[in-house]
């Protein structure tokens, strides 16, 4: 049975299922509380919606910095390859 896709889904179905199981296990192991799959899905959706965009934006900023450094290196390499007049 296909799961209903949510606008907040940033995870594959396999990763989403694993996270839900991990949330249920966390509540059981760390808090001695039993929660169901629906509650775990709600918690996951809450955190994906709350911190997901910040994590995504931070990753984009990190990639921009990395690419800028790489391009600066390539620019230097290309300058070395230029023929002198």
Describe the structure using short key phrases.
85 residues; mainly alpha; 2 helices; disordered N terminus
Task: Give a brief outline of the structure.
This protein is an all-alpha fold. It has two helices and no strands.
Shape summary: rod-shaped
Number of domains: 1
What's the Cα radius of gyration?
Answer: 22 Å
The number of strands is 0
Could you give a short account of the major beta sheet? Answer: none
Order of helices and strands: HH
Number of helices: 2
Distance between the termini: 69 Å
Oligomer: single chain
Question: What portion of residues belong to β-strands?
Answer: under 5%
Round the mean pLDDT to the nearest integer and report it: 88
What fraction, in percent, of the residue positions are helical?
over 70%
Describe this structure in words.
By secondary structure, the chain is mainly α. It has two helices and no strands. The relative contact order is 0.09. The chain is rod-shaped. The protein has one domain.
């Amino acid at each position: 049975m296909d799961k209903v896709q949510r606008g907040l889904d940033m995870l594959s179905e396999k990763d989403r299922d694993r996270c839900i199981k991990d949330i249920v296990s966390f509540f059981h192991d760390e808090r001695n509380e039993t929660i169901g799959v629906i509650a775990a899905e709600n918690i996951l959706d809450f955190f994906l919606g709350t911190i997901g965009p910040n994590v995504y934006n931070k990753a984009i900023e990190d990639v921009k910095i990395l690419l800028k450094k790489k391009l600066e290196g390539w620019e230097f390499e290309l300058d070395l390859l230029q023929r002198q007049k």
